[in-house]
Design a protein that fits this description.
Elements: H1 6-11, H2 30-36, E1 45-56, E2 63-68, E3 71-76, E4 87-96, E5 103-114, E6 121-122, H3 125-129, E7 137-149, E8 155-161, E9 164-170, H4 178-181, E10 185-198, E11 203-211, E12 217-220, E13 250-261, E14 264-268, E15 273-277, E16 289-299, E17 302-312, E18 323-324, H5 327-330, E19 339-353, E20 359-367, E21 370-378, E22 390-401, E23 407-414, E24 420-424, H6 431-504, H7 510-539, H8 547-558, E25 565-572, H9 579-600, E26 604-611, E27 615-622, H10 640-651, E28 655-660, E29 666-673
Parallel strand pairs: 3-5, 6-7, 9-11, 15-17, 18-19, 21-23, 25-26
Antiparallel strand pairs: 1-2, 1-4, 2-3, 4-5, 7-8, 7-10, 8-9, 10-11, 10-12, 13-14, 13-16, 14-15, 16-17, 19-20, 19-22, 20-21, 22-23, 22-24, 26-27, 27-29, 28-29
Protein name: Histidine kinase
Keywords: Kinase, Membrane, Signal, Transferase, Transmembrane, Transmembrane helix, Two-component regulatory system
Organism: Luteolibacter arcticus
Length: about 675
């Protein structure tokens, strides 16, 4: 048999010459060389060692082990004849770390003559697996689990040594029969060599004993009869005590295959179940009825029949039916490998790709005593099941144990999708839906909070703007009152004084009277301008005054000292007057009053404001001489103020009528419809 793990290492190293004369001064103990390979950072370096050849690869001759009093080491080369076993040699080559243990590669060697083989050390299976005897000659014993010939002179086998599985390889086989060695007690002497390590962490996983020949192998046949000739043992009694049992004793069982996964078959005889492991177990199909012979083993403190040999079973048919059991009863560890059914509410499901194709489904189920899982490997997609559904799952109960072997839980291995039955569908308000609903509500609350935040900022800005406008309006009102109470009153007094002076100077020269008239006209003009400015200031603050009050105050100011009597009436029916309408009505009223003061020669002016739910009407009348013709051809020109009134009425959608009233005098009437819903941008007047 070739040693696959040696070939890549051998091809990495150079030539060897048995004729080389290697200097003895460079020789270092093997233990010292092994220690050098562990120094960080590591670099390949040339080393020399001397020892006795303990094993030579008979297939290629390109690798051999040497051993000195401090330890053993693998040496590899590419070409040339190799040394002989029990020959003392001196080697020189490049030190490499190897997959697990250091190796001297690209080696040259010099034969120094025959020598006695190193003393054989007694080793257990556990000591071999932890690497304690790597490269050294050891002897161990155990029960042979399997054996086969790989070629005419090479046999490989598996030894159960101290609850560890150690493989061995015997060269130069002449008389050994592998079939007769199974279940025999054996003593094996050879060189401990690493076979497989775990990735880059260089952790030893498998070790093999390299045996030079039949002289290093001894066995004792312990089976007095073939286990196939013995009665089958019920699976429930397979691991119970019986006198004289040993680890090398094989067991004969029968049953029907329920499930196969990860190289393990699950067998059931209608009463109890058992896991079976071995090369032939990988090829089993669910539903097959078989007989099996194997060794009793424990994996994680749970029974398994290892290294089984399988034959078809032609005995009575076995009928299988899953036993319904509560989850708490499966947690006690007494139903491992049983074919059972258990119910639980689905909490979640995880479906992932499985090795070699297909899908791996894991269901998390809630029982009254806790949570357990059910696992299924399938080649097709499974039907979606909503979380919250009550399921019944039928399959193999796999007990889970802690470091002391006590049961801590269980999981279910399901043979096929038909093993899942929905007993009750999920209620509408499942945990998932409640979480979704909660998420939506939180989202709505977050949006509401954001809207409230931005609305609060906008309201704060509006309040600041309102406060500023109120302050401006208050200041404009104050200025209007000050002008009214001081400058306007003073101008009125001056106008009255000038009028009195004019009456007392009837016999004054014409030049004096003309200058006095011009002065009176200038004062009257200033009075009019001041009054206009006062109401311009007050109009900006309309949102803080009632429209009727503003019209009344305006009339009193306009006709102060003119001898014209003001009659004001107001009727309110609850309607709201937007700011735009109120401002234009005030301007129209102001223009109408100005016309009465300038042109009517009236003794009375009447102001009537009616506010209804759907409209507002303003009527201004006087008892003066009335208006001239307002036909289209006479509009405009001298009546520019009337045109402005028309434009304002049109702007706010009102109907304006200007004419003479019965009995004499002018009549101005405007009716404006009010909006049914107040605008946020308009303030009441």
């Amino acid at each position: 048999m070739k040693i696959p793990w040696l070939l890549p290492v051998m091809l990495c190293f150079g030539r060897l010459s048995s004729a080389a004369d290697l200097p003895a001064a460079e020789v270092r103990p093997i233990r010292e060389i092994q220690t050098a390979s562990t120094v960080e950072p590591f670099k390949e370096s040339q080393v020399s060692a001397e020892g006795v050849v303990t094993w030579v690869d008979g297939g290629t001759g390109l690798g051999f082990y040497i051993q000195d009093p401090s330890g053993g080491l693998l040496v590899t080369r590419e070409q040339g004849p190799g040394p002989k076993i029990a020959e003392r040699v001196r080697v020189r080559g490049m030190l490499a770390r190897g997959d697990f243990a250091p190796v001297i590669g690209r080696a040259e060697y010099q034969g120094l003559g025959p020598a006695a083989l190193p003393y054989v050390v007694r080793a257990s299976g556990g000591g071999l697996l932890n690497g304690s005897f790597n490269g050294e000659r050891v002897e161990t014993d155990g029960w042979i689990r399997s054996a086969e010939m790989t070629d005419a002179t090479t046999m490989i086998g598996l030894l159960d040594s101290g609850a560890s599985r150690i493989s061995f390889r015997i060269s130069n086989v002449k008389t050994l029969n592998p079939e007769k060695l199974i279940a025999a007690k054996a003593w094996v002497r050879g060189v401990a060599s690493p076979v497989r390590s775990r990735g880059t962490i260089r952790q030893l996983v498998e070790v093999q004993l390299l045996v030079n020949g039949e002289e290093d192998f001894r066995s004792e046949q312990r089976e007095t009869a073939s286990p196939w000739e013995l009665p089958t043992t019920p699976l429930r009694n397979a691991f119970q005590y019986h006198p004289g049992q040993t680890r090398g004793e094989r067991l004969h069982v029968r049953g029907k295959v329920i499930h196969v996964a990860d190289g393990v078959g699950w067998l059931h005889d209608g009463d109890a179940g058992l896991a079976i492991r071995g090369k032939e177990a990988r090829n089993l199909k669910p539903g097959e009825q078989i007989q099996a012979v194997g060794f009793r083993d424990l994996e994680s403190f749970l029974p398994v029949l290892s290294d089984v040999v399988i034959r078809p079973d032609s005995g009575p048919a076995i009928t299988l039916q899953a036993k319904d059991m509560p989850a708490w009863q499966l947690q006690n560890g007494l139903h491992h490998a049983d074919f059972v059914a258990v119910s639980g509410h689905l909490l979640d499901r995880i479906e992932t790709p499985a090795a070699g194709g297909g899908r791996h489904l894991v269901l998390a189920l809630q029982s009254p005593r806790g949570v357990f899982t059910a696992e299924l490997n399938t080649t097709s997609d499974t039907k979606p099941i909503e979380p919250g559904s009550l399921l019944r799952v039928a399959g193999i109960c796999l007990v889970q144990t802690d470091a002391a072997g006590d049961p801590v839980g269980f999981k279910m291995a399901l043979p096929d999708p038909a093993s899942i039955t929905v007993l009750e569908p999920a209620p509408y308000f499942t945990v998932r839906r409640m979480l979704i609903l909660l998420s939506v509500m939180l989202g709505v609350l977050l949006l509401a909070a954001l809207a409230g935040f931005f609305l609060a900022r906008r309201n704060a800005s509006l309040r600041a703007e309102v406060r500023e406008r109120q302050a401006v309006a208050s200041e404009r009102g104050r200025l209007a009152r000050d002008l009214h109470d001081t400058l306007e009153q003073g101008l009125t007094g001056i106008q009255l004084q000038i009028h009195g002076i004019g009456l007392s100077l009837k016999e004054a020269p014409p030049q004096t009277r003309d200058r006095l008239a011009a002065m009176r006209q200038m004062v009257q003009h200033c009075h009019t301008e001041v009054r206009q400015s006062i109401w311009d200031l007050r109009a900006e603050a309309l949102e803080h005054f009632d429209l009727g009050e503003a019209l009344h105050r305006m009339a009193q100011s306009h006709f102060l000292g003119s001898g014209i009597r003001v009659e004001f009436k107001q009727q309110r029916g609850g309607g709201h007057i937007p700011g735009l309408i109120g401002d234009n009505l005030l301007r129209i009223g102001q223009e109408a009053m100005t016309n009465v003061l300038k042109h009517s020669q009236a003794g009375m002016i009447g102001i009537d404001l009616t506010v209804a739910s759907g409209s507002v009407t303003l009527t201004i009348s006087d008892d003066g001489r009335g208006l001239a013709d307002r036909s289209p051809e006479n509009k405009g020109g001298a009546h520019f103020g009337l045109v402005g009134m028309d434009e304002r009425a049109e702007r706010i959608g009102g109907r304006l009528s200007i004419g003479n009233r019965p009995g004499g005098g002018a009549l101005v009437r405007i009716e404006v419809p009010l909006p049914t819903t107040p605008s946020l941008s308009n303030k009441p007047t």
